[in-house]
Design brief:
Protein-Tyrosine Phosphatase, Chain A, 5-stranded mixed β-sheet, about 45% helix, BLH_phosphatase-like, Prot-tyrosine_phosphatase-like
Length: about 140
């Protein structure tokens, strides 16, 4: 079972999930899974198509917004909109969870939804240091 790390009531991040984690994510109330990992980044990781099929079979919505390094403004906005339009809690994942929480936090900061200091604190609570990305 992967390490789902709650950031807010409606958003959690995780290191790489397995296909077997998707029914558990649905049982925990997640409605949308966002895959921030590009296909083929590491041998043996499930492809986006495999994760999507397993997510949909578990009754989850799915988005693939692959991020390499720092997210682009378009990736930040696509991620922010997907979360805003989700019909319930969102689980985002990448290799370690860092790209997922960074992409989310940049969207929150740029849209003015949360102040930078709060985002750094939320990141810390989930085990991620966002201070170098957001300041504060």
């Amino acid at each position: 079972m992967s390490d789902f790390r709650q950031v807010t009531d409606d958003f959690s991040v995780s290191p790489q999930i397995s296909l077997d984690d998707l029914p558990a994510a649905a049982a925990q109330g997640f409605r949308l899974v966002i895959n921030n990992r590009p296909d083929g980044e590491q041998p043996g990781q499930p492809s986006s198509a495999e994760v999507e099929a397993a997510a949909r079979a578990a009754g989850l919505d799915y988005m693939h917004i692959p991020v390499v390094g720092q997210p682009t403004p378009d990736q930040v906005e696509a991620n922010r909109l997907a979360i805003a339009e989700a019909e319930g809690p969102v689980l985002a994942f990448c290799r370690s969870g860092t790209r997922s929480i960074v992409t989310w936090s940049l969207g929150q900061a740029l849209s003015g939804e949360r102040p930078r200091g709060e985002l750094v604190s939320l990141g810390r609570g989930a085990g991620y240091d966002l201070s170098s990305v957001l300041g504060g």
